[in-house]
């Protein structure tokens, strides 16, 4: 089983750097339709917790909770009743990518609380992506602890649902950070290490496959198959 990582679903603005992290809406739709056509199952966090993850299945994850998820991915997922996980930097809800807007040369809007509530109602799982998207292994332990614990509390207070999944910002973690995530009461955590779900060391170091905007459909299928 493969967990797929998406960032932006939309057209990259001309000035944007790291354009490969944008998947065009038409390409996204083709990817989903191809996987459906091939008989792939779309899993939810519940499947993973129950250990029910057949080989020919995928879990869709979306990092950073950008507004373009709401505009370009959610309508399709809703139509097909496909589950997904959206990882939210909890202090930046309704704001923008303050952690890397200079590096990528674009201010990308992040969904607001109302939109996140709509997502949870429609069966989209909300996960924590920390409070402010720092490198968790490079800040003092107490600060990392707050990023991990307080983001869970804030999301739970605002959305009224249990926050079960965490995603390490930049994929940056070490054993100490991982243990903080476990102790905070999360049930699983996602990395940027490549590989299948089965290859993951444990539920707090889940491997994923990043989908790039320039992955043509055959390349994506190979990434999912291999
Ligand atoms: Zn991120």
From TrEMBL:
GO annotation, biological process: carbohydrate metabolic process
Region forming the signal peptide: none
GO MF, any single term: hydrolase activity, acting on carbon-nitrogen (but not peptide) bonds
Assigned keywords, A-Z: Signal
Residues of the NodB homology domain: 56-226
Pfam family, one: Polysacc_deac_1
Source superkingdom: Bacteria
Primary site of residence: secreted
A GO cellular component annotation in the UniProt record: extracellular region
Annotated localization: Secreted
Statement: the UniProt record of this protein carries the keyword Protein transport: no
Name the UniProt record assigns to this protein: Polysaccharide deacetylase
